[in-house]
Give the backbone structure.
Amino acid sequence: MIPDAAALLLALAGTVCGVGTLLAMRRFSDQRAVRSAKARVRAHLYEMRLFGDDPVLALRAQKKLLLWNLRYARLALLPAAIVAVPAILVMSQLEAVYGSEPLMPGETAIVTVQLKSGAQPGAADLTAPPGFTVETPPVRIADLRQVCWRIRARGNSDGELRFRTAGESLHRAIHAGPGLRYVTPECSSAPLASIWYGCALESDSVKSIAVAYRTRKISLFGFSAHWLVWFPVFWLAAMLLLRRRFGVTL
């Protein structure tokens, strides 16, 4: 089975992150100390096996093994911290591309407007773009400060939902049809929402507008799984396969 385009692009993203991690480790870690710590860890593992019938020597080897493992972790801490920030940003964007499926023609989804604390559901209206239909009147859930509608995709289309309430008019993207899209289930007014959610609102009363898309599965060699399963596999595989080329000890 030939991997689909989504899997190939995800593999490329994982490879790029793996190469970036190797470069960070080569630049910001003491590779000589890492090699020494790994050698010590192996030596104490052999020592535990060799003196397994001597409790005193075995406990001493376990203590040394723990200490060298901690030292190895400390040596990896700085490059890991440096890689963490861009990795989180990359993964938040990958989630918008790979995390959710656009609606298919004829498929329905629930649109939920979550109001901020202190706001109560009042007069509200949701308008769908061409290619979509709002099938229900607003359902208000006062205890949860939510207003919900059911929408249906009539064909392959992209557009914007428009939510109107007293004093405000907000909009967010909606997608239908096959293929990769930048699909964001939740559009939020929280700080840095454009980074964490891929979609931001500016509102005094609305906390978020969410569309209940289906979760996307990535198919590779006959197996289907969430992208967060495949992505670390590609990332780790790139590091293991390229570590010698970059002169990095893991």
